[in-house]
Design brief:
Strand order of the largest sheet: 3-4-8-6
CATH class of the largest domain: Mainly Beta
CATH architecture of the largest domain: Sandwich
Protein name: Tat pathway signal sequence domain protein
Distance between the termini: 196 Å
Largest sheet: 4 strands, antiparallel
Region (Disordered): 1-48
Number of strands: 10
Number of domains: 2
CATH superfamily of the largest domain: Immunoglobulins
Strand content: 25-35%
Organism: Streptomyces coffeae
């Protein structure tokens, strides 16, 4: 008769079938690919290997396209981020954009009897804007003034125009024969504003006007019959 006794525990280290260690799968997924190969696959070429394996023409085209894309990207960035252009400065005031000068007389000798005298003035647009002469007047009620050509007259930027100012004597009474600084009042206009400006031309214009008025009014008085 045979019997079964209690099973005795094996001695430490004497397990005839040891279990292989279990390797836990990485929670982060497969290892990243490197330049020289993929993790766990030493025979697989990496990024650099695949790039080197491409034909030279293909690599050149790829590099050229990469450069073009980079240039376009930088250009678009600069274009979108450049500051807005500042507004251009306003044009100068009309009176600051012209020079008006006296250029002498014309035909004074034969005009003494008629009482119509012609003077030449020159208008120059000296700034980067055209200027229009809207009107020219003088302050003496006994005189009238017209221009040739007639106003308005536009002077282009950088150009000059000569005008003939004709002054006619309406009556000799009330005329200051010794005019020291006879003014001309000129209305100027450009894209910024309209201005009324008084111009004084100095001794030359004053002397010519005074001489003309004296000649006409002296001849006129000499023809008036003397009343005893």
């Amino acid at each position: 008769m045979s019997g079964i006794g209690p099973v005795e525990p094996a001695a430490p280290g004497s397990d005839p079938h040891p279990l292989a260690p279990v390797t836990e799968a990485s929670a982060e997924g497969p290892a990243p690919e490197t330049l020289t190969g993929r993790a766990g696959d030493p025979d697989s070429p990496g990024v650099y290997g695949r790039w080197a394996a491409l034909p030279r023409r293909t690599r050149r085209i790829a590099l050229a396209l990469t450069g073009v894309v980079a240039a376009i990207t930088v250009g678009c960035y600069l274009l979108l981020n450049q500051p807005a252009p500042s507004a251009p400065p306003p044009p100068p005031w009309p009176a600051q954009a012209v020079e008006v000068s006296y250029a002498g007389t014309t035909g004074l000798r034969g005009a003494a009897d008629e009482g119509v005298f012609a003077f030449r003035i020159r208008v120059s647009a000296i700034r980067n804007t055209a200027v229009t002469v809207d009107n020219i007047t003088q302050p003496y009620p006994a005189l009238t003034l017209t221009t040739s050509p007639r106003t308005p007259i536009t002077v282009r930027s950088g150009a000059s125009r000569q005008l003939i100012v004709r002054i006619s004597v309406r009556r000799c009474s009330g005329i200051p024969l010794g005019v020291e600084l006879p003014p001309l009042d000129i209305t100027l206009r450009n894209t910024r504003a309209i201005q009324d400006q008084t111009f004084l031309f100095g001794d030359a214009y004053a002397n010519d006007l005074s001489t003309a008025l004296r000649a006409h009014c002296s001849a006129h008085r000499s023809r008036v019959p003397h009343t005893p």
